[in-house]
Amino acid sequence: MQTSNRTIFLSTILAMFLASGVAAGQNSGVASGYPVPKDDLTPQEQKGKGLYKRYCIGCHGLKGDGNGENAPYIDPKPRDFTLAQFKCRSTPTGTLPLDSDLISSMERGLRGSNMPSWLPLSGENRQDLLAYIKTFSPRWKTEKPGTQIAIPPEPAVTAEHLKAGQALFQKLECWKCHGTEGRGDGPSAPTLTDSKDRPIVPYDFTEGHKFKCGVTDQDLYRIFMTGLDGTPMPSFADNVKPDEAWDLVFYLRTLQPMHTKEKAIAKQIGLKPINPEAAPAAAPQQQEQQPPQQQQPPPQQQQQQQQPPRHAR
Amino acid sequence: MTSPQRSLAGGLLLAFLLSLLFVTPTKSFAIPVFARKYGLPCSACHEAWPKLNSFGQKFKDEGYQLRNEKDAPIWLRPEFWPVAMRITPHWHFESAGRTAVDSAPSGEQTVNTSGFDLTGIDILTGGTLANNISFLLVPSIDVGSGTVGFESANVRLDNLWGSPWLNFKFGKFEQDLPLSEKRMMTLSNVGGAYQLYHYVPPDDANTDEFASLGENQLGIELMGHSEDDHSRYAVSLLSSTNGTPGLPSPFGRSYDGYLHISQGFLVPHLGLQRVGAYGWAGLRSTYSLTTDTVPIPGTGRGNRSFYRAGVYGSAYIGKFDVTGVYQRAGDNVFLANMTPVNAPGSLPVGAQGPVWNTGTIEAHYTYSPQLFIIGRYELTRVSRQVLASNPSDLGNADVFTVGYRYYPFMHSRDGLAWHQEFSTINLKKLAASGKDQRTSSYFMGFDFAF
User: Fold this and answer.
1) Is residue B186 within 8 Å of residue B401, measured between CB atoms?
2) What pTM value is reported for the model?
């Protein structure tokens, strides 16, 4: 190697060592790339801010209010973090979610929305992002997250469970939004709006196997019990007993396009779509059904949420 | 090797390298169409465009899908057209040392040139045809000749049987390389191509024109990855010569195989690290059938082999990342000397199959997604020359490249970068005088895509 080449080679190696030292000193986490700002954020929030600017700002906006430059073109609209209101939670309606709920949403992405899975980010990155997202709403400083709802063990699927689930589907008038066959085409569907009065469509069970908040039976169970805050989908925690919720889970699985054990049983027993005109065939034996529990908005949102509960009763 | 021979060999190699760099259209791409489609800023998928970050790599590996069930075109606004363009108007300065010049007292002198220029125009179209069926089509217009070529044209069936481990690509595409040349962060004539993929020793006839990892090839690829994209593999079968099907005999009748496996792992507080290995092997014919002594295309015979195989590691330390690649390469003696295997007596005296080793270290410092600094050092050492009589270090190359890119803004509609770069290559004993030959490039310009 010529002297000049050796010099270049050694300089390159030296420069790389120096750069790595500077990099390690500047940022001990996985880099967002953005410089660490000097503000009143904690170091973790600062790292999260850089990551937020890199990945999230286009949709959720600089202020976290869901008004990013792409928000006008996105449907459903990006989450407004200033409200601290989240669809996918394991906590009761109206309460703050657990950190694990939000991390789970980041990892999974939200089906049917522009929110992708951020699984390629490191766990550390996701925690940093979470820390920063929480700075957008004062609720995180004044309130504690709700208590995680309990999910009892899933019973075995039987024809009786399916029939009971179908009866519940009719009695609770799920069909008014989701349609008699779960296609999201119920008579109330065109009138539905979210908490910001923007049109929203009910879930079409026939179009896929994923739900916005997960793919498992437990995820579906959780959705009944927590509701999807900010949407017309209420919590049924006070209206439906755990066994009944499982019945409903099993019945909804018969509406989905893929082959499920529930679907096979439904075919075996010749389960037909419900007839809204008819009285429920076999009302659940549990206590009298009550109207579903509506989401309790946090105090600072109560004025914002003027419209009456829209869920059909 | 005599001085005139050395001069000729050096001249040919240098001319080849320069011509390759001059005529090759813009090599790298970032695709603003995806940013527009999904509403994500460029920085979501790119460390700094066009270099992908781990999220962007996963998006690509998923077949340009986010897998949020809104990937299919049916979700797009009807007026959306999945097309983007990229070009880089620039000013550059080139210095070719020890160029043979008739009027120079010593027969050699440094030739300096400069001027304004354009890179080739890339028309970048890609996306999904349906859920889990994606495509990429990249026509490139060479601004010098005005000719249009297809840099990429492929269809990919993604997530077959619901598994991310099974993705099938058909058409013309870039091999799954450890350092993507199509997403290269350097653009100058010297620094705009990896020696790793293009270098061949002096006198080796199996040149870049016939076998280059840096060029997109026609064929099929089976690629797979884990859900988090940490484990990846790609295996491809290629039937063309540098993406040119039916290239006249004797080259044009062979299938090449390429394999790349890698494993990434997260190190707390540092980032995603990756190690991997790759190999490419193929055959090229050494003679062909003829009609009235004119070769019949596609009738190549007497296949002989070549290979390129390497290992690499990529490390992130916060904002700093470095990738090191070691590659060993070799060409069969008949290929290297362009000698038909049915006429072995035609081999030049001292002919041998060349073997060479290349090392590449490329480092980046991402100050922010809007300021990206790059440094690269490549060295190539020929361990066995094409002719035993050649000096053992003839054609050994050292390339040093440094530069930066500044992006004045970062959003999801388009991208603009101010690019400055300096690159220099030293080729051992390739001047007519037997001395080293140094060529340098300085490049500055606006790189934009919309």
Assistant:
1) yes
2) 0.82
